[in-house]
Amino acid sequence: MTDGADDVILALQPAPARRVVGTALVGALGAIVLWLAVVAPPAAPLWHGFLLGFGALALWGAARIWRATGQAVELTDAGLRASDGTVIAAFDEIEAIDRGMFAFKPSNGFLLKLSAPASRAWRPGLWWRTGRRVGIGGLTPRGPARAMADAIQVRLAMRRG
């Protein structure tokens, strides 16, 4: 028997095509920059080092995007968590949700405002958390992200009223 806190109400995960395209674009950027650094190295050693570092960083970023987007964001009675069990935000910490056009939020996603600052965390293409802000979205489809945002907004309204 479960207590209800672990039951997943909604899950938000990247579409397979978006996952592949997003990772491939960042990986291609890294490969092109590294190729440029090897085939046509700039005369200044500082620029050559910059190109090598940036290319390696982009390839590392592509690997992080691929790993992160293999997970999902799950909405439970307790709050939001990643499918690996990482707690993103508990419901009692969420003060507001912002889905406005001019909000600093991931594409196809939404922004949560927390009551207290939380530790920084980042799963590229899926979610990020810094200070009192949590961004959900990125490579996720718009419809399921909107449904999750609606469910959170209803839960917040019920808590207030």
From TrEMBL:
The keyword Transmembrane helix applies. The chain crosses the membrane at residues 20-40, 46-66. It comes from the Bacteria. Keywords: Membrane, Transmembrane, Transmembrane helix. This is DUF2244 domain-containing protein.
